[in-house]
Amino acid sequence: MRKMLLAVLSRVLQTPAAAAAAGKTGAVSEASRVMVASRNYADFANEATFEMKKCDLHRLEEGPSTTAVMTREEGLQYYKTMQTIRRMELKADQLYKQKIIRGFCHLYDGQEACCVGIEAAIKPTDHVITAYRAHGFTYTRGVPVREILTELTGRKGGCAKGKGGSMHMYTKNFYGGNGIVGAQVPLGAGIALACKYFGKNEICLTLYGDGAANQGQIFETFNMAALWKLPCIFICENNRYGMGTSVERAAASTDYYRRGDFIPGLRVDGMDVLCVREATKFAAEHCRSGKGPIVMELQTYRYHGHSMSDPGISYRTREEIQEVRSKSDPITLLKDRMVNNNLASIEELKDIDVAVRKEIEEAAQFATTDPEPPLEELCQHIYFNEPPFEELK
Amino acid sequence: MAVVVAVLRHLAPLGPRLTRIPPHACAGGRLLQHRRGLHLSSPAAIQVTVRDALNQALDEELERDERVFLLGEEVAQYDGAYKISRGLWKKYGDKRVIDTPISEMGFAGIAVGAAMAGLRPVCEFMTFNFSMQAIDQVINSAAKTCYMSAGLIGVPIVFRGPNGASAGVAAQHSQCFAAWYGHCPGLKVVSPWSAEDAKGLLKAAIRDDNPVVMLENELLYGVPFELSEQAQSKDFIIPIGKAKIERQGTHITLVSHSRLVGHCMETASVLAKEGVECEVINMRTIRPMDIEAVEASIVKTNHLITVEGGWPQFGVGAEICARIMEGPAFNYLDAPAVRVTSTDVPMPYAKNLEDNSMPQVKDIIFAVKKVLNI
């Protein structure tokens, strides 16, 4: 039974062309294809156990486990998702340089393990809110690539009909996409208050960066979240730089997981999708059990500058960027783990890469050809559930 | 004659209060009845202070919809800094009436987030002066989100509290924010005067699916007004975006909001003795503004003054005058419109300076006579 499932899985993950070829072409190629196919489900392991970095703890007796089990299926899904986000962000870079995307564009490449690991640990009924570096979360929360890219190009097929842009993408249980640094943190605690109020065992994950971590309203929020035991996971994505200012130059204490003071915290390797997943599971359990909020610091890195108008090399060296790419890239880390533990083959992962590129190309094609929103949209949605203003004097 | 005058003097303290009874509730000859201290109310109407009207509105809406809750500084166990929420925490408990720490930006953001996730918060600012700490959450998080999300995420929140001048609280505690909040698309802004306004507008605001800023006035909290039988009903709502003609007139239109509507009514009473009949419009809503009501009135009276408690530059009056100029009513004006506003200074403390920095009845009378050229 399992072998059949694996066979189906491997066929699904093959490119359509390969799958068709497996059934159709000449004997030799068919034989080799069949050999590859049979290798897929006979030779791979179902799952493997991995060691992870231990999380630093603050006001916690124990932390998440340092070992995690990942199934082949999970691994392939994490890989595909991270790769999709990576290629989507690179496509956005390209479109921005062609001036098809305008305004602000804050890219997430390098940080994929954060959003993917987080989503793997929570339920679709949980709530997520983040700041403006939001494309990755928009995807993991369920918005298709096509709608994300089309929102970036400002067309009517965008997830906000072209009215939001890069920093204002939303979907069910995902509250953006927020442009004002730090403002999303009280919002997230408010969502957590609603979770507690409705009593459906849902939690809210509220993300902010190392730059935002010094905002006063975050400390106001910590206070109230702790006082009222709100089921909120405060997650600091520490990518070492707040725009052009390194953490050492901005924060008297760079131990962001401790900045919640009376709120317990943990510091997590944000480049390891499994570490993020396990830590988030741990944090979610903490919140759901009624213990109140918890802080998580994800140590991560962005390859791009702060935004598309920042080359990102005036405040850090190319060598540093290159070092992270070669030693800590989240996708490479996952790929190596899977191949070394016989969870997947290199060819299989390459096939996924090809499929992802194709999906991104098609999405970009749509995003660049979809028309702009009609002018009537200008005066729609000023108020909720009300007809648009007729007057526009 | 002397006896009559003496009687009048004796009754004088009752005078100002009584002039605020809405004229429609009184039969003819109301001036005489004011002086003699009679209330000529319709059968089941009662006298209710603005404070009690707000309290009733909150109570009724908390009862009606479980998603409604109140948060702010001192709203629960203290019964409200101005006692607006008296008794509510006792009745509804910690879940529905929440005391916050002194963290405007934080708790306003929390309230907005709760609204995005399906609750219907009433967020109290102890005064709107403190709302400046939180104004980013009101504008960027609450007002704009429906638009930015193309209608996906609504923010059914009410921000309420006292606005504008109080008495002797000096510069940092006396600012009027009608123009500030009225500037922003995505917000609704209401400014009640009477108890009926307060009750009906607060209920409407809570039931509205949009962020509503309700600008109350601390000096009005203790003032009783007549609440008609209709207004006492649990489903009494005043539509947001509609002004009310408080007094019919033919010679000039006085447009105002909040406490100064009372000043306009007094002005109208005084001028009526001189044969000048003022039409007094109570705006009730700052945004969306009911400019049609003003236009219709100008067609009748041909003269306009605006009266507000805020500063002149970029104020509510400026907006009204600009819109009148741009619209059909301009052709009906026989003289340029005049704005009566607070003096363009931070509010001073000394009583004489304070009194002279805000519009008084004599200032409004002066403005009327200037416009009418009498």
TrEMBL record, chain A:
Subcellular location per the Swiss-Prot or TrEMBL entry: Mitochondrion matrix
GO molecular function: metal ion binding; pyruvate dehydrogenase (acetyl-transferring) activity
Cofactor annotation: thiamine diphosphate; Mg(2+)
UniProt GO BP: glucose metabolic process; pyruvate decarboxylation to acetyl-CoA
Catalytic activity: N(6)-[(R)-lipoyl]-L-lysyl-[protein] + pyruvate + H(+) = N(6)-[(R)-S(8)-acetyldihydrolipoyl]-L-lysyl-[protein] + CO2
Signal peptide (UniProt feature, chain positions): 1-19
Keywords: Carbohydrate metabolism, Glucose metabolism, Magnesium, Metal-binding, Mitochondrion, Oxidoreductase, Phosphoprotein, Pyruvate, Signal, Thiamine pyrophosphate, Transit peptide
EC number: 1.2.4.1
Primary residence: mitochondrion
Domain of life: Eukaryota
Domain Dehydrogenase E1 component: start-end pairs: 81-375
InterPro entries reported in the protein's UniProt record: DH_E1 (IPR001017), PDH_E1_Alpha_Subunit (IPR050642), Pyrv_DH_E1_asu_subgrp-y (IPR017597), THDP-binding (IPR029061)
GO CC terms, sorted: mitochondrial matrix
Function: The pyruvate dehydrogenase complex catalyzes the overall conversion of pyruvate to acetyl-CoA and CO(2), and thereby links the glycolytic pathway to the tricarboxylic cycle.
NCBIfam families recorded: PDH_E1_alph_y
Stated name of the protein: Pyruvate dehydrogenase E1 component subunit alpha
TrEMBL record, chain B:
EC number: 1.2.4.1
Protein name according to UniProt: Pyruvate dehydrogenase E1 component subunit beta
Catalysed reactions listed for this entry: N(6)-[(R)-lipoyl]-L-lysyl-[protein] + pyruvate + H(+) = N(6)-[(R)-S(8)-acetyldihydrolipoyl]-L-lysyl-[protein] + CO2
GO molecular function annotation: metal ion binding; pyruvate dehydrogenase (acetyl-transferring) activity
Enzyme superclass (EC): oxidoreductase
A GO cellular-component term linked to this record: pyruvate dehydrogenase complex
Subunit comment: Heterotetramer of two PDHA1 and two PDHB subunits. The heterotetramer interacts with DLAT, and is part of the multimeric pyruvate dehydrogenase complex that contains multiple copies of pyruvate dehydrogenase (E1), dihydrolipoamide acetyltransferase (DLAT, E2) and lipoamide dehydrogenase (DLD, E3). These subunits are bound to an inner core composed of about 48 DLAT and 12 PDHX molecules. Interacts with DLAT.
Pfam family membership, one: Transket_pyr
Keyword Phosphoprotein: no
Cofactor requirements of the protein: thiamine diphosphate
